[in-house]
Specification:
The structure holds 2 protein chains of 2 kinds. Chain A is mainly alpha-helical. In chain A, 66% of the residues lie in helices and 6% in strands. Chain A has helices at 3-26, 30-48, 58-90, 92-95, 130-161, and strands spanning 101-105, 115-119. Chain B is built from 6 helices and 2 strands, in the order αβαααααβ. Classes of the chains: A mainly alpha, B mainly alpha.
């Protein structure tokens, strides 16, 4: 298989993943996207082995290793920071964060300028609204996309550092 | 950063000096980067990176190169200790 064919198939797989991700949300079935990711991962590795017009030499493998290593470090820091924050947010009740309060304006039907004092963090975990959970999920997706960009950035950086980007005369 | 910090960083860079004569040997054998790369089973960019000193090859590739040019490994690669 030619390398360009492989890239086209990868692009199609990426579109399929996005579509099935949306479908998974509409169907409220996480197994659809989980299965898709698993199948795509296996398919990606299987197809990668079938590329015939590409030489994967030691320098490229070295760049790949350096890129992966750096990306994993950044990913751990980002996801750990966010997830620790999320855990604190979810369990803020038992930790006493529910004592932090904010003033929220009351809606129509109340006197103008009327406010109520509400906890800034949800009180017990079960009172976290679906919209807040959705926001956390959206943040996770944003982080995932950020990690993809970080990977590409590191790849470019290490490719330049170890002389893979520039073209030169013979 | 202080001047001494810059100096120490610069000296650290100087410590890592792996010189090579790949370009010289390639010229002696009248080989293109692509031809040498194909003979050694690597990409042309790797040969280019080695020649420019941006990438130090593995021991295996260094031996392959020495074997290809029929010389000792230290004839092509030299480690300069500052």
């Amino acid at each position: 298989m030619k390398r360009n064919t492989f890239y086209i198939i990868c692009g199609l797989m990426a579109i399929a993943v996005v579509l099935l991700f949306a479908m998974s949300i509409y169907a409220s079935n996480p197994f659809i996207i989980a299965g898709t990711i698993l199948v795509c991962g296996i398919l990606f590795l299987a197809l990668k082995r079938r590329i015939t017009d590409s030489v994967m030499d030691e320098r490229q493998m070295f760049i790949g290793m350096k890129t992966s290593s750096a990306t994993i470090k950044v990913a751990i820091i980002l996801f750990l920071t966010f997830n620790i924050g999320m855990i604190v947010y979810v369990f803020s009740g038992p930790l006493g964060f529910h004592n932090i309060r904010m003033n929220k304006p009351l809606g129509p039907g109340f006197a103008e300028g009327a406010i109520e004092s509400v906890p800034f963090f949800p009180v017990p975990p079960e009172t976290i609204s679906i919209s807040q959970l959705g926001m956390l999920a959206a943040c996770e997706i944003i982080l995932f996309i950020v990690i993809l960009f970080v990977y590409v950035g590191f790849w470019y950086y290490f490719s330049r550092k170890y002389g893979g980007v520039e073209e030169d005369e013979e | 950063m202080s001047d001494s910090g810059i100096t120490s960083l610069a000296s650290m860079e100087e410590l890592k000096k792996m010189k090579n004569k790949v370009k010289v040997y390639r010229a002696m054998y009248d080989l293109t980067q692509d031809a040498l790369a194909q003979a050694l089973g690597v990409t042309r960019q790797t040969i280019l990176a080695i020649e420019k000193g941006r990438y130090d090859p593995s021991l295996e590739l260094a031996f392959k190169m020495a074997d290809y040019f029929n010389v000792k490994i230290e004839d092509i690669f030299t480690y300069i200790k500052e």
